[in-house]
Amino acid sequence: MKVLHVIAGAKDGGAESIMRDAVVALAEAGLAQHVVTRAHNPARLAEFAALDVPVTLAQFDNFWRAPTSLAVQHAIDAFAPDVCHYWMARAGTFAKKALRTRSIGWYGDYYKLRRFQNCAWHAAMTPDIVRYIKGEGVREDRVVLLDSYANLAPATPTPRASLDTPEDAPAILALGRLHKVKAFDVLLEAAAGLPGAYIWIAGAGPEDAALKAQASALNIADRVRFLGWREDRADLMAACDIIAFPSRYEPFGNVTIEAWAAGKPLVVADAAGPAQTVTNEHNALLVPKDDVDALRTALARVIADKALARKLVENGARSYEARFTKAAFVKAATDLYARVVAAA
Questions:
Q1: Which one of 48, 244, 254, 270 is separated from 182 by 20 to 30 angstroms, measured CA to CA?
Q2: What would the pLDDT profile of 189-241 be if each residue is shown by its tens digit?
């Protein structure tokens, strides 16, 4: 089986990490792969090189499309893939009509179907996105739920001293792009009412200055740590006490399954993805979006109630093992690719 992956994407981000994790898992399973992507993440490119996965670099410019179109075609000609997997909407616009029956469009959000007009198959990361695609008129047998998995390396807890955090202080970790949709402003407001709790925010983005100013205005800057974008997510998760995921908008949210895999209690807002994935009071505490008091109360409960924290961790681990492991992803992806080849 030979699979071509095509992704534009940002330098860092959730969907980009999911695609990287897919390539890693499939390489370990023995699939031949080739990637067409941008050059802006050297670490990701080095990881592909270490796995002996060839890469074709492209710009993915929406206005000057010819060079990227040619790069994709050259990769197809050289690699002769059995399946072409186009990750997200921009990549989908470069799918080749001649290989439509062998092409899959991947949805990490509610993308416009026309972006994948040259893809006969559609893979979605949540049941609700599956419902949306079918509602747009795609044949039911051409739409597949493809769960991601938590690709956490073996962890060595980040020393708290390196984060200027006392060993005995409750440490709450939040991960994601510093963007308004991630609602880190709500987390900071909640933290103002959690004396003694330290907040670690791992991410980069346009809200960086505004969030730091907010922490200062709330007089909690002395216990908030802005860590920037981190590649050592597993180590940070191992070091924290609670993972907070307050997003206003989240089609899926890999942080959910990463928290379960890391064995940490999760407090999460009821954005679409988490609301479909977690069970409140069972494997997470689910709170309303933009509700500072509810988020603060949930975090305080987990800090104070060790039995509750253990229950959330144990049930989260069961949920992870049932559906979101690397082995489960590899089986689902290879089953999908086999269906595509058989139908083509």
A1: 48
A2: 999 999 999 999 999 999 999 999 999 999 999 999 999 988 899 999 999 99
Q: What is the pTM of this model?
A: 0.85
Average pLDDT, the chain: 96
What is the CATH code of the structural domain delimited by 160-323?
A: 3.40.50.2000
Which residue type is seen at 44?
R
Higher pLDDT, 16 or 223: 223
So what's the pLDDT on residue 29? 96
C-alpha dihedral sign at 271, 273, 274, 279: positive
Count CB atoms within 10 A of the CB of residue 28.
Answer: 11
Q: Token digits for 114?
A: 């026309």
